[in-house]
Amino acid sequence: MELLDHLISGFGIAFQPQYFALGVLGALLGTAIGVLPGLSPAVTISILLPVTFAIGDPIAAFIMFGGILFGGMYGGSTTSVLLRTPGESSAVVTQLDGYPMARAGRAGAALATAAIGGWIGSTVGMVGLMLLTEPMTDVALSMHAPDYFALMLLALTIVGFIGGHFLKGAFALCLGAAVSTVGIDFESGQSRFTYGNPYLFDGIDFVVAAIGVYAVSEVLYQLSLLRNHHNFAAGVRKSGVGSRHRIFSSSLKTLYMDKSEWQASARPWARGSVIGFIVGVLPGAGATIASFMSYGVERMVSRTPERFGKGAIEGVAAPEAANNASAGGALVPLLALGIPGSATTAVMLAAFQGYGIQTGPLLMQNNADLVWALIASLWIGNILLLILNLPLITVWIKLLSVPGWLLYPGILLISAIGVYSVGNSVFDVYVVFLLGVIGFGLRFVGVPLAPFLLSLILTPMIEIQLRRAVSLSEGDYSIFVTRPISATLLCLTALCVLIPMVVPRIRQKKKTRLGV
Amino acid sequence: MPTKGQTQSGQSDRTGSPRTRAERHLYRTIVLVLPLVSAWFVWQTLQLPVSAVSKHIGPRTVPMVAGVGMLVTSTIWAAAVLFKRHSENQATERGAESDELSSVVAGNKPLGSVDPDEFVGSWRDLGVSALGVAGYVIGFAWIGHYAGALMAIPLVIYFDENKGAQRLKACLLKVGCVILFIIALDVLFARLLGIPLPGSLFN
Questions:
Q1: How much is the ipTM here?
Q2: A183 forms bridges with which residues in the sheet?
Q3: Would you call B126 and A224 a contact, using CB atoms and an 8 Å cutoff?
């Protein structure tokens, strides 16, 4: 009952005209950036963050960010199905069966199952968010500095070491940690790596780093491929809405699923939603892994796995439910523990910090209005996305015809102005472009950027907790292994480091033994 | 002769397009520079004084852990690249993380097979873009918002597929749109958000 009361009060705030309008704006903006390759919710939120600081209303900002987060998930699937051009990495798997479905004249059914699956996934994600946040907050309140240190270390380790290239992930983590130490050490008052430059005394602002590493490097990367964009955008423009889209326009008139398609989609929606939420709660896993995992599960449980990749509706339904559910799941550790699990939630954490809101277990107590308004606005945005997205499909497709020479310099312009407005400092503008060039180099050699960003925001917090823990124990480092929570978390951390090192070697040995 | 989308070596970058020799050199240079940067960071950390305030965790501790971590990982990586045990192609494809949107997207775009000749264009585009960006930053920082944005106009003209004397009108129209956009941003920030940009006309 208490949950419902909170939710109703949240709806009371979210339905206020200005917040409702911002929620809709966020959902539409999120869908648009979801459609456009090269733009992600993390980039958009980081660019908009300085602007929302100027507005000064955290509820308004977070309602809009929530809309962007969910809208991005919806938008990615549309172009994935119709044009085989996923706007988001989490929608990549959708094209495997969505595009063959579209080619077979079932584009409408593919988009419908994606949208309904997305809605179900988001709903499951939000129910999970509501149910889990408070119990997790209670657990978090019983935790102390050594436990927090171990938990943050575990979050970083999962992000950096699991699911990618071991060395590159570890390098990204360490680089993020190194950059985060620039500035005056709060305890000793010692300046670190500032070289007498007063602009660096406060360190490198996270928003500046996020815009530089994500947005500016992406702009540089996309500009380097602009000639290819020319061909693509020109193709989309010349054919009206897009040659492939024109081919599928007849099948789009039938935005419904027949009985057998409803039956085939129902279980994948449910399975995808549950998998997506669980994966979303884990730090670092994110929507992409959730969608790939749910696709794999569907293929595994299917009696006819050979249909996958050739237009199986389950291959669209499950990943779309999973990536939307993971967006809700990702908010749980952020709201309950103050620990982000993805690049987008890391930017949202920076937003909390920018507004002077203390994240972690006290967030629910001190800023309950904000949290419940955010959750309520996600419900509203989710329904609006379902209603708006299908009729607006042609509009979203047309967005792809925006030429790169206009889009990317525009992003650059807004990024520079946004960064300037964070601290009215031209120095930040230099820093953002320097970080953009570094980010481009890291992208070029395949170093993942999400661990870098998460490390950048988590390392100062880890340093604080480490110092608190060691002063509590008066210099006795055994405090980390004598407390059950921290000992367990540190064991998990060690496993996360060892598994990616050991498992490939065991596989390699097996292969060698079998003579493969 | 390499076919479309393939080089003689058959190597490709993370977009699934072939890696040119210049790209392979750049990849190797960046990877080999990383241990040097890491070593420099460790050396700089060693220059930090040991704190008299904090007995256990001083200002050196976290930077040292980060620096040593960078040094170890980048050295192993560089050694692997140097001794060819780790082919650039494999490394790049395995390193295409799930969060790397552009890599995943580009790899799945119907642009897949790109003529190797187009990479000449890509490098030139990147060079022009970098100059445009540098011009923008310097203009913005030294003179102001308008100067910076006007530096970006040559970028727009360069990338405009309608460039040429016969399309002058279309080009001017687009430049006009860019100028209006710049003014609109100035109005938005200076008047509506109360953040005067450097060199703002509406402050």
A1: 0.76
A2: A192
A3: yes
